[in-house]
Structures are given as C-alpha cells and as structure tokens.
C-alpha cells in the first residue's frame, strides 16, 4: 500500500473526554471516529487491525471444527420472552418497536437465536457435537459508555455456541474452545491469562475468562506464579489464613475507644495489630409480608467483603445493605461500633473462614465509643456460620495449595462458559438420543470481544509517542520512509525496489510517499504504531545502507541495502513466531 | 471440507409463505432460516456463498482504489436531522430511543455518517479523490418484507462514497465504480445489464442500476439489442411514435358509445384501431388555501402512464389522482367518458409526445355513454403542453435512434449514483480548494446488495431439482459422492486421494462422507446447487473410472480415475473464466 493512496487521519490532540490511553491513541491515530456515545466508525487504518484479529479468530475457530454462520442483529422479542431474559435483562437490552408495533431487540448476545436454529435443525444425537460461531455486530445500551472501544455500545464480537448430547460432550467442546482461545491470544501476541470466573467452592457451571494483563485493566486478577491458578478476584477462593483456632488467652472486656469507629483507629489506640480486629458488616434480606432478616458478616479488619460470593450464599441472594433505621432497631445503636454480642434483636451471623479461626479478637460493643476485646468463639458467642466472603489478597495461600497469590489487573477479552441446559430447556431444544428419547441439548457459549482486543492490545503496548502494535494485528507490519522520494531518483528507485521485495515476501508494507517532512512522517507512524520502519536516504545510500528501527528500539541499525528486505522480514517472522 | 464435519440442513418442504423460487430454494437448501419477517440467519452453507460474494466485491473495490472502513449500524438522529432526511424518510427508517431517551436510527444507508467523517477528516483538495466503502448490515423497515433475502428488512450491503473536489473528479470516480461493478457482476457469473435509472431528458444527476436478468424480476428493463441502450422502464425515454402530425381528414362528431367506457371497447364498437383512441387520466395538485389544480393527461389508448416521469414535470411534483367529487365538479360528469373538450371548469391538459402528433382521434365527450371522434389539435382544441408521460413498450424506437426497444425483467443488485453536493452542502462538508477557498465536496454513492445477489443468482439459475450456482459463489465448487465410503476400502482410498488432489489444486471441494444413500446424497447436493459432482463407486473403479456430472448436464461422463481431478479442475477453471 502506498500512503498517497491510503487515508491517514492522525490528529494532534485527542478530545478531552477520552479517559484512557487506548481511547486517546486510537482517536489520535485516526483508527476510530466517534459517531455517538459508545458508537464509533472504524477508519481504514483501524479496520485493518480489526480484519487481522478477525482472520486469526476465524482461522482458529475453523481449525477447532466450529462452523461459521451469521445471525441477525435485530431479534424478535418472542425469543427473549421464551428464554425468560426479556424480563431478566435490564435497560442495557435495547428494545424497540417496528412500524407494526412488534417488539424487537438489538442483540447484545445470541443464545436465543442460536437455540432457535438448533431446535429446528438438530433432530438427532448423530448431528452433534456441533459448534456454530459468528463474527457480528452487537449492541449493549451501557449507561455510561466509555474507554472508547473497551466499553462501547456497538461492538464486534465473535460468539460461538456448542451443542452436545451430554455433559461429557460439552466438556470436550469446551476444552476445544479453551485451547483455540489460547492459540488465538498467543498468535495475536498478547500477554494474557485464563482465569476462573466462578468459584469452584460455591458451585455453578464452569466458566473461564481470558484477560489481557494491563495496569489500566478494569478487573483484578488473582494468580499464583508457582502454579497455573488464576481467577478473577470476584471469584478467587480465599482460604482461612489460620489452619486452626488457638486457645483463648484473654478475658473478654469492654474498652473505651472514643471516636475510633474504624478498625485501623481501634488497633492504633489499643496498640494491637489490625489483624486482631473484626469488621462487622450489616446486610438485610427482605421477606414478603414480614420484617427483613438482618445479617452480621464478620471480616478481619484488614480484609474486604466480596459481594459476589455473599450473593451466592444460601438465603443471601438479592441482599442489600441494611438501612440506618434497621441498624438502630436491631442493634440499639447507630452504625460505627457494631458487633455480634448483645444485639437488641436476633441477627444471623456469618464469619469469614479466617475470622472463624481467630481467638482473642476485638469487636464493636453495640455502644457508641466502645469496643470489646478478648472475644472468643464458643466461650463468648456461639459458633458462627462460616463461609468464604472476602476478597483474596496478595500473599494469601493459593487455593490449589501450591504457592502464594499475586494480583494484577486485566482486561477481559474472552469468556468461555458451560451453559448446560438452561436455554435448551427454556426453549424446548431437544434431540432424540440413542434410545429415541427426547433430551435437552447441552450447550456451551464462547465469546471474544473483537473490537475490544484493539483497546486491550494498546493498553498493554504503548509509549509516549503512540501505539506499539504486536506484528500480528498491526495495520501495517513495516513502513518505508524515504527521505526525498520526490527529489532523489536513487531514493525513489531503491525505495520502490525494497517495497517490491517486501511485498513479494508477503509482508504488509506501507510506503510513505506523501512527501511529508521526516518529523511528520516519523511522528505519524510512531503514533499509528507500525512496529518496523526502514528509512531510505541519499546519505545512507552512498554507503549502500538504509536505517532499520523497531518501534521499541531506541536507536536505528544500519543495514546493507541488499540485505534490508531479508533483515526486516526476519525481524517480523521472529516476532510473529514469539 | 468433509460433510460429516459440516452442517447440512436441507428440508423436504419450503414453508408455505415462501413466494418466489429463490426464497423457497434457500430455505429448502438450508442456506437461511427465518428469525422474523424479513430477518434471516445465514446458516453455514448460505454464509459460504455470501463470503465469496464479499471477497469478490472487496477485491474489486480495493483494485479500484476504494478504502474499506466500517461505520456503525446505529446512528444518532442528529446527523439525519442535519441532512434533512429525518423528516423526509418514511416509516421504513427504523427510529428508536436509547435508555437516555436520545433518538437513533438503525441505518438503512450511511450518507450522513460518511459525510460527517469526511467533514472532519478532509480539509484540503490534496486529500481527494477518496472513496470510502464498507460491507455492513443495514436495516429497512419494509412494510411488507417478502421474497426472502430479496426484499428483507435486515440485509448486507456494500456501500461506497466518493469525495471529489469538482464535477470532473466525480465523473472519474463514478466511472471507476461503474467499471468495478461490471467486473464484479461478470466475475460472479451473472447475466446482468447496466441500465439508466434516471431519464436524461428530465434531468437530475446521473444514476445507473445494475440488474440481474431474470423472468421473476421486479423491474421492467427496456433495452436495445442493436445498441447499448438500457434503462429502467420507469426512466426510459419514450419517443413520439409519429414523426409528424397528419392533416385532419374527419369532422369532429359526438357518437353514442353506450356502456363503452374503456378505449378497447370504444375501438371495437367503432371498428377502429385502438391506436386511434385517447385515454384521459385526471390528476390533481393541491394549492394551499385555494382549490386544487386539475390536470388532464392524454395517452394513446394502448399506452400506460409513467408516474415517475409525471412526478418530475413542472407543477406536478407530489401529484395525486383526482377524487370522484373533483371529477364531477370539473368535468360535470362522473369518471368514464372524460375528455379535454367542454370541461365544466378549466383544467390543464398535458399530451403525451405520441398523442401530440395524432390526428382524427377519439376522446370522451364528458357525457356518460358518449365519445367524440375526429378530434384534431388546433382545430378542435388548443395546442397542448407536450411531455413524455408514458412507459416505453417493446417495438418502440430506441431513444438513441439505433434500433427498437425490447423489454425484459430484472432484479436490481447494484446502483451507482452521482450525488453532487446535496449532503456536503446540507452538512457543511467543505474543503479548501487550490485558492484556499472553502468548497463543498462533490459526492457519489455506490451500492451493492450482497445478500440480495444470492437471491438474484438463484432466480437466474435453478431447475426443478434445486439451485445451480455460478462457480464463483457456489458454497462448494465440487462434491465427491462415494458409493459405500464406509464399506469399500478402494472407494474410500480413491475418494480420499481425489479429495486431496482437488484440495491441493485450490478447489473448494466437499466430500460427502455422511453415509447417506445415493438418492439422498444426490438430492441434497442438487438442491444446494453444487455445480460439479464426481461419483466414485466400486463398479467404475474396476474399470479405473469415475462419473463426472455438471449440474446442468443430463448425463454423467465417465472419466479415467487418474485424470478425474484434472478434468474437474479444468471444468471449474473454464467456468470461472467465462
């Protein structure tokens, strides 16, 4: 491609509302243009990267035996009513009426449509396993679209749906997709991690997320460098930090802690480690036609509540935080010095696994400005319900028992999920098994955020000058920057020759023949993030040399003109093989 | 591809609501599945054909220098308000509100979005010409979606938009697109015709449609076999059928024609040719705050009114047919025996070009059961306004003066259009010209109905057994049908060898290893429309032969096994080169 025939739309400044690096750089590099909140056009340079991502995804999906189809963006409400999601989904499901007042949605996902296809097309166990995928436009009416393509409203996804005759089949289909995802993100050239999205101890169908590791990621990922354990902090199992409970050594005692409502302040005042204090968190669950149930959750002073885990506990689905009025009614005191001992009305106590193994701890006295020290289970208060209700922290033991947890930030770019029979049962997608008996199909679903990958790749690879694309998804692999293409015959001739050599070698090369000054040329291509560059100038040509520079290199390398194409090709090949 | 790993979803019967052949066959061949009225999923076999169409379109667009980008399906109302189309468009523009009550549309086309991109990205004449295209999902809320993918609501289009600094540039951009379209439809293997969509005599910007010729087409195309003239009948210029007006020979006379309101009946009663009679058509145009203007349009008895042409005449934009009450008020008689002579109130008379050169003709007398014969211009009624207001008919002289018109039916699959500055002026898309003066960009737009091409190709190529795909867009180029793949080792071995040979030759081959009976196999692939087939069986193999059969052949050809791959490859190559 020659730049004069292409469209370069770099900008000096990013709009002020671009919050994250990838958003700013994609706008400045002329990859995207905003059409409305969370809705973008992909300009030619941006679309080239998208097409490369799509090609890799398509190749690996086909290799894994998945079959491409294409479902519509606009879906009838009836299908969503059948699955029950018409009611379950919130306002991010974009609903509208057509000219005949029939209700439709713009699909944020396609479980309903694909299940409808399956129930009509799959009659027998002999037709399975089958895995349908598409690369398609989705719409999710985010309340606050932001971060450019990372949390947009209209976006491109690859979504796949597997249909199996039994759970064993699903496991195999799931494994194939998992392996394909590993190949996809490896080929794209991203540092990524597959993490458990769902805690095994709490149950539920298996589900894993693929995260691109980046300091600016939205999600906290717990992982163990000594093993392959990795899980979203939302889901990572927290083990008790004490193997067993020590015997009580202190007597229980009420202590004045005036103005010290927080655990940190109490520990400082009493001169004890924060790890001896207990945080009481008051939740409520509503009971129809009766007063709510009030829960007291106990966490070690330095630990944080994990609301996802709490929501999965028996009786706590749909919990809310208790109101101040409820706290006064149940504890006889306003929030601040609460504890499990001597409540005014009975509450349900749930202790975190770590708290359950503590002795001689400190809790609020249910009286303003007082705490109780030397509290012990069994002696001072009954044995509690025990559950994993906290977030893991760096240094915690890994749940697989093979080392300590570390935490990094990640951007979710893929998700594999064992759906089971949820949709096939709701929508009557059955097949005849070996005995001629109808059975619900066993489903899995597998998503990759195609447009999101661009943002994630940039968050992981940029510097102050711009984007640094992994070779596999760079809009161009290499740029040729001639110094005086219009003025110097030898520069033009050698540049054209190099361009022809690289093109013939199957390398995606762009020749900057726009006649811009070197500074403008370099700045544009560094901003756009082309990973390799060769500068051709009269001075170098006199010595038979050109200047090669990788996007991360601090200095150029002089390369003999007749070896330049091979040199660059080898650099690109090596990078792609990484 | 092996059929056991693919998904064949052929059906015995098409749903009753499928009206046209292509719709029935696409459903029966398992290419599409209906999701809602005018909304389809493309199953794997259907998507393969779509992808082949897309690849050809993309290749030729790139070759013509157009740059691919991707605009969103969801577009903000503001852009449509700027262009004025928010008000102009009818209910086929799907409008909705997002969760914040902002108004959006699902785009049926992208002039507004691309003009918004251009006005922000193009600053100087040096950045033009540029032509942006996309292959993307559109939505048009048709009141009566039908004919499967031919008149769907959600569909895939290639749309391109060129930006030039002046009209000469637009001509050149337009010519490039026209040439690309000719290559695209030629490569796809369709019999097509480029037709004028807009009559040159009436004016307006240049616009041409590409029609696939098919008996079931929705449009009538007038063309001249002796020249390259072709135009939509809506737009084809009708010349006067008489070079000049003959001198009057009859006296004007009122004649009883009881019960003969129609021209045919009058001609029969009076024993004169239908060509001597005149049809009077009464139209009205409304005037604000005043009574409407009533128009009497005169056509030869055997001619039909062309409403598109009429709508472009001065004063007749937005015309309607007059009501019965208006006819009684202006003509003093109910509809049936109307004519230009002796109206009750003055009407504006427009005569078709042919009528203007007639003598001694017959018109209604504005009295029930009476006609007036021997009517002549100038003598019996004033010289009329003359205009081209009729449809051309077979046998008419071609407007280019080089032969006679014939008429065929076509399916519109492409459209090229010189927009000029309509959108750039409405939306302020200006650039600085050579003198630093702001000028509106000069635009063209160019569409191809990607999904529609599938339907059109089938309407042109089918028989009672199913589809007959042109090789370039067939889901597979050739199918191997082994007789007893599971039972006969030699059949399996030779089939596998042939499969490998064809695959290596770059041929898109499917091997039917499903173990179906021959009848089922043949029926499936004939329905799906794979254009070439090789049958491998033990009987033939004994003689070292296999059976080749083209989809249009009535008999198979015996081919030596070792030449079979080459034989088939040559057939496919020859077909693609056609």
Structural class estimated from helices and strands of chain A: alpha+beta
Number of domains of chain A: 3
Radius of gyration of chain A: 30 Å
Give the oligomeric state.
homodimer
Inertia-based shape of chain A? globular
Please write the CATH class name of the largest domain in chain A.
Alpha Beta
Strand composition percent of chain A: 25-35%
Q: Per CATH, what is the topology of the largest domain in chain A?
A: BirA Bifunctional Protein, domain 2
State the helix count of chain A: 16
CATH superfamily of the largest domain in chain A: Bira Bifunctional Protein, Domain 2
Main pleated-sheet profile of chain A: 9 strands, mixed
Helix content of chain A: 25-40%
Protein model, in words:
The structure is a homodimer of 578-residue chains. Chain A has 578 residues and is of the alpha+beta class. Chain A folds into 3 domains: 3-237 and 407-459, Bira Bifunctional Protein, Domain 2 (BirA Bifunctional Protein, domain 2, 2-Layer Sandwich), CATH 3.30.930.10; 253-385, YbaK protein, CATH 3.90.960.10; 476-577, Anticodon-binding domain (Rossmann fold, 3-Layer(aba) Sandwich), CATH 3.40.50.800. Chain A has 16 helices and 31 strands. In chain A, helix 13 (489-504) packs parallel to helix 16 (564-577). Chains A and B meet through strand 1, strand 2, helix 2, strand 3 and strand 4 of A and strand 1, strand 2, helix 2, strand 3 and strand 4 of B. Chains A, B: Homodimer. Chains A, B: Residues 33-470 form the Aminoacyl-transfer RNA synthetases class-II family profile domain.
């Amino acid at each position: 491609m020659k730049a004069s025939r292409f469209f370069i739309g770099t900008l000096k400044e990013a709009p002020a509302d671009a919050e994250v690096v990838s958003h700013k750089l994609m706008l400045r590099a002329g990859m995207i243009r905003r059409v409305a909140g969370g809705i973008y056009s992909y300009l030619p340079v941006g679309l080239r990267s998208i097409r490369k991502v799509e090609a890799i995804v398509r190749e690996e999906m086909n290799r894994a035996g998945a079959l491409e189809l294409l479902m519509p963006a606009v879906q009838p409400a009836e299908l969503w009513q059948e699955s029950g999601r018409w009611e379950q989904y919130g306002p991010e499901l974009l609903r509208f009426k057509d000219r005949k007042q029939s209700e439709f949605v713009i699909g944020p996902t396609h479980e309903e449509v694909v299940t409808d296809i399956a129930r009509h097309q799959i009659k027998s166990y002999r037709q399975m396993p089958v895995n349908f995928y598409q690369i398609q436009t989705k719409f999710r009416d985010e309340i606050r679209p932001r971060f450019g393509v990372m949390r947009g409203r209209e976006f491109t996804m690859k979504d796949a749906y597997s249909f199996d005759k039994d759970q064993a089949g699903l496991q195999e289909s799931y494994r194939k997709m998992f392996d394909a995802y590993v190949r996809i993100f490896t080929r794209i050239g991203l540092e990524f991690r597959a993490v458990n999205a769902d805690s095994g101890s709490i149950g539920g169908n298996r589900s894993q997320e693929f995260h691109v590791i980046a300091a600016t990621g939205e999600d906290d990922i717990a992982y163990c460098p000594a093993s392959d354990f990795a899980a979203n902090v939302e889901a990572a199992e927290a083990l008790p930090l004490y193997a067993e409970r020590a015997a009580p050594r202190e007597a229980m005692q009420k202590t004045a802690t005036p103005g010290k409502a927080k655990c940190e302040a109490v520990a400082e005042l009493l001169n004890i480690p924060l790890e001896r204090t207990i945080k009481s968190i008051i939740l409520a669950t509503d009971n129809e036609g009766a007063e709510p149930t009030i829960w007291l959750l106990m966490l070690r002073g330095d630990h944080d509540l994990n609301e996802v885990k709490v929501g999965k506990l028996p009786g706590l689905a749909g919990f809310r935080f208790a109101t101040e009025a409820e706290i006064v009614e149940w504890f006889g005191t306003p929030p601040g010095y609460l504890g499990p001992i001597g409540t005014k009305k009975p509450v349900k106590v749930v202790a975190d696994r770590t708290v359950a193994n503590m002795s001689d701890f400190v809790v609020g006295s249910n009286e303003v400005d007082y705490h109780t020290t030397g509290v012990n289970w069994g002696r001072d208060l009954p044995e509690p319900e025990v559950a994993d209700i906290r977030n893991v922290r760096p240094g915690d033991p890994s749940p697989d028992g093979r080392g300590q947890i570390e935490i990094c930030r990640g951007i979710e770019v893929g998700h594999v999920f064992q759906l089971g029979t949820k949709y096939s049962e709701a929508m009557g997608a059955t097949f005849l098994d070996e005995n001629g008996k109808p059975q619900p199909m066993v489903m899995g679903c597998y998503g990759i955020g195609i447009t999101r990958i661009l943002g994630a790749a940039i968050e992981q690879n940029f510097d102050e000058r711009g984007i640094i694309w992994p070779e596999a998804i760079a809009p161009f692999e290499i740029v040729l920057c001639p110094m005086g293409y219009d003025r110097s015959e030898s520069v033009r001739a050698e540049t054209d020759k190099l361009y022809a050599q690289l093109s013939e070698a199957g390398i995606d090369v762009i020749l900057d023949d726009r006649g811009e000054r070197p500074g403008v040329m370099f700045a544009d291509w560094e901003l756009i993030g082309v990973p390799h560059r060769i500068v051709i100038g009269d001075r170098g040509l006199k010595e038979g040399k050109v200047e090669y520079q990788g996007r991360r290199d601090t200095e150029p390398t002089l390369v003999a003109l007749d070896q330049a194409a091979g040199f660059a090709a080898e650099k690109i090949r090596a990078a792609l093989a990484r």
